[in-house]
């Protein structure tokens, strides 16, 4: 099968393009328009390099050292020194998909023609992506201003044939060796190219795009697990009625409620307590208010997506080459717009998980579970059922609340007070990735608990939508019974959520979810 190729030009990349290249290894191709624009802006940079008037990043030092004029014979060394000194990351490697997203997005910025990069230098970055060579980028090093300097410097170091990479097989090796094996010739950076490769927000942006992609799926999953819990706890779906939701016209809330109505339609379990025998007037908030919380989370993701869309259309560098040939310094590398939404997203992630954990706990508590056995255990006392699975949820939720504290309110001055205010957006992005993983795991535990509770309602039958999800889960996770090793069952549910199988199963029964 032919490998998918994503065209990279001056135009904005789509979210799906980023995911395909970053996560699934799609190839990239610089467009003819991109090559022409880069060549044109390069001519302007070379004019400045020949001029007597100092130009920042072309013939001067960087940051607080920008007052020094660099003579022509030292300018190649200037660019090499910039990259070597700035490739100062530390700590664990970041994920391959994050580095590939960052590489792709920086390539798109280079393709805009506003950085003054040579086309052949950009072609090396294109070749690295297509060969599956991933520079080793570390957890710590970026302040989110001026852009993601240290992470991008590790990428630029690879373009120079230096540093450490992982090849397409994931093997750790020197960059020079990996490039040689793939027939890629490293470059000696010319005037301004060092800055052009590192002065951007692409690390933060890549992680934001990946998080939005994952949260879009997790929001649907949260509606599914919430509906399963409402069903298992003999709750009512009347509160999700469209006319009630319309009284508070938040768009995300309407979508979440519509999903829950569709998922619960035709439920034999719910029909069983519509005969007037139920004495409860209202369900608990974690059931009744699920659309309000999931809806607010949707609206937050929509806001973050709008910010990401604008950033995907941006050309971040300092200085930049404008269409009229001017080369100007600017502050567009500041990561505040991204940092704020990265922090913002961590709040609804924590809250969604908190509500899911409360529903799980309710299903395990004999005083609140509407007739289910304690902890859904087969022989309570001998068996503990899902007691400790809820502990795991609670531990994750506790961590998610900590991760919801914003990184962007902090600023530690750097570069001898030249860079006296920074965004900390990279840190916000790193903690959001951990938060998204935590939400996935909390929903997985709600999923296996609600499925077990639904099975314990037999012979009553669930709705077609929720029943399809239970049936999918039973292909890898057994039904009610004696205690067994739970960790692999939780992990199986995590994978079914992560790969989209849970959403696909529900949609096979009820149609597309919003």
From TrEMBL:
Pathway(s) it belongs to: Amino-acid degradation; L-histidine degradation into L-glutamate; N-formimidoyl-L-glutamate from L-histidine: step 1/3
Catalytic EC class: lyase
Subcellular location: Cytoplasm
Catalytic activity entry: L-histidine = trans-urocanate + NH4(+)
Main location: cytoplasm
Keywords in alphabetical order: Cytoplasm, Histidine metabolism, Lyase
InterPro entries reported for this sequence: Aromatic_Lyase (IPR001106), Fumarase/histidase_N (IPR024083), HutH (IPR005921), L-Aspartase-like (IPR008948), Phe/His_NH3-lyase_AS (IPR022313)
Entries under NCBIfam families matching the protein: hutH (TIGR01225), PRK09367.1 (NF006871)
Protein name: Histidine ammonia-lyase
Organism per entry: Thermobispora bispora (strain ATCC 19993 / DSM 43833 / CBS 139.67 / JCM 10125 / KCTC 9307 / NBRC 14880 / R51)
Top-level taxonomy: Bacteria, Bacillati, Actinomycetota, Actinomycetes, Streptosporangiales
């Amino acid at each position: 099968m032919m490998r998918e190729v994503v065209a990279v030009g001056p135009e904005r990349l789509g979210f799906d393009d980023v995911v395909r290249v970053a996560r699934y290894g799609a190839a990239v191709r610089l467009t003819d328009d991109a090559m022409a624009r880069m060549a044109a802006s390069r001519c302007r940079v070379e004019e400045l390099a020949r001029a007597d008037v100092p130009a920042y990043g072309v013939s001067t030092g960087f940051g607080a050292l920008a007052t020094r004029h660099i003579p022509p014979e030292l300018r190649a060394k200037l660019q090499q020194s910039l990259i070597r000194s700035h490739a100062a990351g530390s700590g664990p490697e970041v994920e391959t998909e994050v580095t590939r997203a960052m590489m792709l997005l920086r390539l798109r910025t280079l393709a805009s023609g506003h950085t003054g990069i040579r086309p052949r230098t950009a072609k090396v970055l294109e070749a690295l992506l297509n060969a599956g060579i991933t520079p080793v980028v570390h957890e710590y090093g970026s302040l989110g201003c001026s852009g993601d300097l240290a992470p991008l410097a590790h990428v630029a170091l690879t373009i120079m044939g230096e540093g450490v990479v992982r090849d397409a097989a994931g093997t750790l090796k020197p960059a020079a060796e990996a490039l040689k094996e793939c027939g890629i010739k490293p470059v000696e950076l010319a005037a301004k190219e060092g800055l052009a490769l590192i002065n951007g927000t692409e690390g933060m942006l890549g992680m934001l795009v990946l998080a939005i992609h994952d949260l879009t799926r997790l929001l649907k999953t949260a509606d599914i697990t919430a509906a399963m819990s409402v069903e298992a706890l003999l709750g009512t779906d009347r509160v999700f009625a469209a006319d009630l939701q319309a009284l508070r016209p938040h768009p995300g809330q309407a979508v979440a409620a519509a999903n829950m109505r569709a998922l619960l339609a035709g439920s034999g379990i719910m029909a069983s307590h519509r005969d007037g025998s139920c004495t409860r007037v209202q369900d608990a908030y974690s059931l009744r208010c699920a659309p309000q919380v999931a809806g607010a989370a949707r609206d937050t993701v929509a806001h973050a997506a709008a910010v990401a869309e604008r950033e995907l259309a941006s050309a971040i560098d300092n200085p930049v080459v404008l269409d009229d040939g001017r080369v100007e310094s600017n502050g567009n590398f500041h990561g505040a717009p991204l940092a704020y939404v990265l922090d913002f997203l961590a709040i609804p992630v924590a809250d969604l998980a908190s509500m899911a954990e409360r529903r799980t706990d309710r299903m395990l508590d004999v005083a609140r579970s509407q007739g289910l056995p304690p902890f859904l255990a087969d022989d309570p006392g001998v068996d503990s059922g899902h007691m400790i699975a809820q502990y795991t949820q609670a531990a994750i939720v506790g961590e998610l609340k900590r991760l919801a504290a914003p990184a962007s309110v902090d600023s530690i001055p750097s570069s001898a007070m030249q860079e006296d205010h920074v965004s900390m957006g990279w840190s916000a992005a790193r903690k959001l990735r951990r938060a998204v993983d935590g939400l996935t795991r909390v929903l997985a535990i709600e999923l296996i608990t609600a499925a077990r509770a639904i099975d314990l309602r037999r012979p009553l039958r669930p709705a077609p939508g929720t029943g399809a999800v239970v049936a999918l889960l039973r292909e890898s996770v057994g039904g009610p019974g004696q205690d067994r090793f739970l960790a692999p069952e939780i992990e199986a549910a995590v994978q079914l959520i992560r790969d989209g199988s849970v959403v696909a199963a529900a949609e096979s029964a009820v149609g597309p979810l919003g």
